[in-house]
Protein backbone atom coordinates (compact mmCIF):
# COMPACT_ATOMS: atom_id res chain seq x y z
CA UNK A 1 0.00 0.00 0.00
CA UNK A 2 1.44 3.41 -0.99
CA UNK A 3 2.07 6.02 1.65
CA UNK A 4 0.01 9.21 1.76
CA UNK A 5 2.38 12.19 1.39
CA UNK A 6 2.10 15.36 3.47
CA UNK A 7 1.44 17.38 0.34
CA UNK A 8 -1.50 15.14 -0.58
CA UNK A 9 -2.87 15.35 2.94
CA UNK A 10 -2.49 19.14 2.95
CA UNK A 11 -4.36 19.33 -0.34
CA UNK A 12 -7.22 17.19 1.09
CA UNK A 13 -7.40 19.51 4.10
CA UNK A 14 -7.27 22.55 1.79
CA UNK A 15 -10.21 21.20 -0.23
CA UNK A 16 -12.13 20.40 2.97
CA UNK A 17 -11.65 23.94 4.30
CA UNK A 18 -12.58 25.47 0.98
CA UNK A 19 -15.71 23.26 0.61
CA UNK A 20 -16.73 23.98 4.19
CA UNK A 21 -16.56 27.74 3.67
CA UNK A 22 -13.36 28.44 5.53
CA UNK A 23 -11.95 30.51 2.66
CA UNK A 24 -9.42 32.49 4.67
CA UNK A 25 -8.14 29.37 6.44
CA UNK A 26 -7.93 27.54 3.11
CA UNK A 27 -5.97 30.42 1.53
CA UNK A 28 -3.59 30.57 4.49
CA UNK A 29 -3.00 26.78 4.42
CA UNK A 30 -2.46 26.84 0.64
CA UNK A 31 0.00 29.71 0.86
CA UNK A 32 1.96 28.22 3.78
CA UNK A 33 1.96 24.67 2.31
CA UNK A 34 2.93 26.07 -1.09
CA UNK A 35 0.08 24.09 -2.68
CA UNK A 36 0.19 26.25 -5.81
CA UNK A 37 3.28 24.34 -6.84
CA UNK A 38 1.73 20.91 -6.11
CA UNK A 39 1.45 18.46 -8.95
CA UNK A 40 -2.00 17.33 -7.82
CA UNK A 41 -4.83 17.77 -10.32
CA UNK A 42 -7.71 19.20 -8.30
CA UNK A 43 -10.23 18.10 -10.91
CA UNK A 44 -9.52 14.45 -10.06
CA UNK A 45 -10.20 14.91 -6.34
CA UNK A 46 -13.94 14.35 -5.64
CA UNK A 47 -15.86 16.58 -3.25
CA UNK A 48 -15.67 15.46 0.40
CA UNK A 49 -12.53 13.47 -0.27
CA UNK A 50 -11.03 14.14 3.18
CA UNK A 51 -14.14 12.98 5.05
CA UNK A 52 -14.42 9.89 2.84
CA UNK A 53 -10.75 9.12 3.40
CA UNK A 54 -11.04 9.48 7.18
CA UNK A 55 -14.22 7.33 7.29
CA UNK A 56 -12.55 4.57 5.30
CA UNK A 57 -9.59 4.67 7.64
CA UNK A 58 -11.86 4.39 10.67
CA UNK A 59 -13.68 1.47 9.07
CA UNK A 60 -10.37 -0.21 8.47
CA UNK A 61 -9.39 0.25 12.10
CA UNK A 62 -12.77 -1.04 13.17
CA UNK A 63 -12.42 -4.06 10.95
CA UNK A 64 -8.92 -4.72 12.22
CA UNK A 65 -10.09 -4.46 15.82
CA UNK A 66 -12.70 -7.16 15.16
CA UNK A 67 -10.00 -9.63 14.09
CA UNK A 68 -7.79 -11.84 16.21
CA UNK A 69 -4.05 -11.41 16.29
CA UNK A 70 -3.76 -14.08 13.60
CA UNK A 71 -6.15 -12.19 11.33
CA UNK A 72 -9.10 -14.57 11.85
CA UNK A 73 -12.59 -13.37 12.67
CA UNK A 74 -13.55 -13.24 16.32
CA UNK A 75 -16.57 -15.38 17.27
CA UNK A 76 -19.55 -13.14 17.71
CA UNK A 77 -21.32 -10.27 16.06
CA UNK A 78 -19.38 -7.43 14.46
CA UNK A 79 -18.95 -4.68 17.05
CA UNK A 80 -19.10 -1.06 16.03
CA UNK A 81 -16.71 1.44 17.60
CA UNK A 82 -17.08 5.12 18.23
CA UNK A 83 -14.93 7.38 16.01
CA UNK A 84 -13.37 9.00 19.06
CA UNK A 85 -12.17 5.57 20.20
CA UNK A 86 -10.75 4.82 16.78
CA UNK A 87 -8.87 8.12 16.78
CA UNK A 88 -7.59 8.08 20.36
CA UNK A 89 -6.94 4.43 21.22
CA UNK A 90 -4.50 1.84 19.96
CA UNK A 91 -5.44 -1.55 18.57
CA UNK A 92 -5.19 -3.47 21.89
CA UNK A 93 -7.50 -1.01 23.57
CA UNK A 94 -9.91 -1.18 20.67
CA UNK A 95 -10.00 -4.97 20.85
CA UNK A 96 -10.62 -4.82 24.60
CA UNK A 97 -13.48 -2.42 23.97
CA UNK A 98 -14.90 -4.84 21.43
CA UNK A 99 -14.49 -7.74 23.86
CA UNK A 100 -16.27 -5.84 26.62
CA UNK A 101 -19.05 -4.88 24.24
CA UNK A 102 -19.49 -8.47 23.12
CA UNK A 103 -19.57 -9.72 26.69
CA UNK A 104 -22.17 -7.11 27.49
CA UNK A 105 -24.15 -8.07 24.41
CA UNK A 106 -23.86 -11.76 25.32
CA UNK A 107 -25.09 -11.02 28.85
CA UNK A 108 -28.01 -9.08 27.48
CA UNK A 109 -28.78 -11.90 25.08
CA UNK A 110 -28.56 -14.39 27.94
CA UNK A 111 -30.90 -12.22 29.97
CA UNK A 112 -33.31 -12.15 27.06
CA UNK A 113 -33.04 -15.90 26.70
CA UNK A 114 -33.59 -16.29 30.44
CA UNK A 115 -36.64 -14.08 30.18
CA UNK A 116 -37.92 -16.23 27.34
CA UNK A 117 -37.24 -19.36 29.38
CA UNK A 118 -39.03 -17.77 32.34
CA UNK A 119 -41.97 -17.02 30.09
CA UNK A 120 -41.99 -20.61 28.85
CA UNK A 121 -41.76 -21.94 32.40
CA UNK A 122 -44.54 -19.60 33.45
CA UNK A 123 -46.64 -20.86 30.57
CA UNK A 124 -45.97 -24.43 31.65
CA UNK A 125 -46.84 -23.57 35.25
CA UNK A 126 -50.00 -21.85 34.06
CA UNK A 127 -50.91 -24.96 32.08
CA UNK A 128 -50.32 -27.08 35.18
CA UNK A 129 -52.41 -24.71 37.28
CA UNK A 130 -55.13 -24.84 34.65
CA UNK A 131 -55.03 -28.63 34.76
CA UNK A 132 -55.23 -28.52 38.55
CA UNK A 133 -58.18 -26.15 38.36
CA UNK A 134 -59.88 -28.47 35.88
CA UNK A 135 -59.22 -31.44 38.15
CA UNK A 136 -60.52 -29.51 41.14
CA UNK A 137 -63.58 -28.48 39.18
CA UNK A 138 -64.20 -32.08 38.15
CA UNK A 139 -63.71 -33.23 41.74
CA UNK A 140 -66.18 -30.62 42.99
CA UNK A 141 -68.66 -31.68 40.31
CA UNK A 142 -68.25 -35.32 41.34
CA UNK A 143 -68.77 -34.38 44.97
CA UNK A 144 -71.88 -32.42 44.05
CA UNK A 145 -73.14 -35.34 42.00
CA UNK A 146 -72.51 -37.69 44.92
CA UNK A 147 -74.28 -35.28 47.24
CA UNK A 148 -77.24 -35.09 44.88
CA UNK A 149 -77.28 -38.87 44.66
CA UNK A 150 -77.19 -39.15 48.46
CA UNK A 151 -80.02 -36.65 48.73
CA UNK A 152 -82.01 -38.56 46.13
CA UNK A 153 -81.46 -41.85 47.96
CA UNK A 154 -82.36 -40.18 51.25
CA UNK A 155 -85.57 -38.86 49.73
CA UNK A 156 -86.36 -42.31 48.40
CA UNK A 157 -85.69 -43.80 51.84
CA UNK A 158 -87.90 -41.13 53.40
CA UNK A 159 -90.66 -41.92 50.93
CA UNK A 160 -90.20 -45.62 51.61
CA UNK A 161 -90.38 -44.98 55.36
CA UNK A 162 -93.52 -42.92 54.84
CA UNK A 163 -95.01 -45.71 52.76
CA UNK A 164 -94.04 -48.21 55.46
CA UNK A 165 -95.68 -46.01 58.06
CA UNK A 166 -98.80 -45.86 55.92
CA UNK A 167 -98.74 -49.64 55.50
CA UNK A 168 -98.24 -50.03 59.25
CA UNK A 169 -101.15 -47.71 59.88
CA UNK A 170 -103.20 -49.72 57.42
CA UNK A 171 -102.25 -52.94 59.22
CA UNK A 172 -103.12 -51.30 62.52
CA UNK A 173 -106.49 -50.30 61.13
CA UNK A 174 -107.02 -53.85 59.85
CA UNK A 175 -106.08 -55.30 63.22
CA UNK A 176 -108.30 -52.80 64.94
CA UNK A 177 -111.21 -53.69 62.63
CA UNK A 178 -110.64 -57.40 63.21
CA UNK A 179 -110.41 -56.91 66.97
CA UNK A 180 -113.54 -54.83 66.92
CA UNK A 181 -115.33 -57.46 64.83
CA UNK A 182 -114.21 -60.20 67.23
CA UNK A 183 -115.33 -58.15 70.20
CA UNK A 184 -118.69 -57.47 68.60
CA UNK A 185 -119.08 -61.14 67.75
CA UNK A 186 -118.02 -62.10 71.26
CA UNK A 187 -120.66 -59.82 72.73
CA UNK A 188 -123.41 -61.42 70.61
CA UNK A 189 -125.66 -63.79 72.64
CA UNK A 190 -125.25 -67.51 71.92
CA UNK A 191 -128.20 -69.83 72.29
CA UNK A 192 -127.22 -73.16 73.84
CA UNK A 193 -129.91 -75.82 73.65
CA UNK A 194 -130.63 -77.78 76.79
CA UNK A 195 -130.92 -81.45 75.80
CA UNK A 196 -132.28 -84.19 77.95
CA UNK A 197 -130.07 -87.07 78.86
CA UNK A 198 -131.04 -90.10 76.83
CA UNK A 199 -129.52 -93.49 76.46
CA UNK A 200 -130.77 -94.08 72.95
CA UNK A 201 -131.51 -92.20 69.77
CA UNK A 202 -134.75 -90.69 68.63
CA UNK A 203 -136.09 -94.07 67.63
CA UNK A 204 -135.90 -95.26 71.23
CA UNK A 205 -137.40 -92.08 72.69
CA UNK A 206 -139.69 -90.57 70.13
CA UNK A 207 -141.37 -88.58 72.82
CA UNK A 208 -138.18 -86.82 73.84
CA UNK A 209 -138.34 -83.08 73.37
CA UNK A 210 -135.74 -80.36 73.51
CA UNK A 211 -136.50 -77.61 75.97
CA UNK A 212 -136.41 -74.01 74.77
CA UNK A 213 -133.02 -72.40 74.76
CA UNK A 214 -132.34 -69.49 77.04
CA UNK A 215 -130.05 -66.69 75.90
CA UNK A 216 -126.73 -66.32 77.69
CA UNK A 217 -123.72 -64.00 77.13
CA UNK A 218 -120.73 -66.25 76.38
CA UNK A 219 -117.40 -65.02 75.13
CA UNK A 220 -116.53 -65.98 71.59
CA UNK A 221 -113.27 -67.49 72.80
CA UNK A 222 -115.20 -69.90 75.03
CA UNK A 223 -117.12 -71.32 72.08
CA UNK A 224 -115.79 -74.49 70.37
CA UNK A 225 -116.99 -75.42 66.90
CA UNK A 226 -117.30 -79.20 66.34
CA UNK A 227 -117.07 -80.52 62.80
CA UNK A 228 -117.20 -83.95 61.16
CA UNK A 229 -120.88 -84.59 60.23
CA UNK A 230 -121.84 -84.32 56.60
CA UNK A 231 -125.56 -83.93 57.34
CA UNK A 232 -127.69 -81.99 59.75
CA UNK A 233 -127.15 -82.91 63.43
CA UNK A 234 -130.44 -83.40 65.24
CA UNK A 235 -129.34 -84.57 68.70
CA UNK A 236 -126.39 -84.46 71.06
CA UNK A 237 -125.74 -85.41 74.70
CA UNK A 238 -122.92 -85.24 77.23
CA UNK A 239 -121.46 -88.49 78.51
CA UNK A 240 -122.37 -88.97 82.18
CA UNK A 241 -118.96 -90.48 82.93
CA UNK A 242 -116.44 -88.46 80.86
CA UNK A 243 -115.87 -85.25 78.97
CA UNK A 244 -117.48 -86.60 75.83
CA UNK A 245 -120.25 -85.20 73.70
CA UNK A 246 -122.29 -87.59 71.55
CA UNK A 247 -124.10 -86.24 68.49
CA UNK A 248 -126.46 -87.85 66.00
CA UNK A 249 -127.58 -86.99 62.47
CA UNK A 250 -129.92 -88.47 59.84
CA UNK A 251 -127.71 -91.42 58.82
CA UNK A 252 -128.45 -93.01 62.17
CA UNK A 253 -124.92 -92.85 63.39
CA UNK A 254 -123.19 -91.00 66.18
CA UNK A 255 -119.79 -89.34 66.64
CA UNK A 256 -118.13 -88.90 69.98
TrEMBL record:
It is found in: Nucleus. InterPro entries: Ebi-like, LisH, WD40/YVTN_repeat-like_dom_sf. Its main location: nucleus. One of its GO terms (biological process) is regulation of transcription by RNA polymerase II. Residues 107-188 have a biased composition (Basic and acidic residues). Keywords: Nucleus, Repeat, WD repeat. One of its GO terms (molecular function) is transcription corepressor activity. Pfam families: LisH. This is Uncharacterized protein.
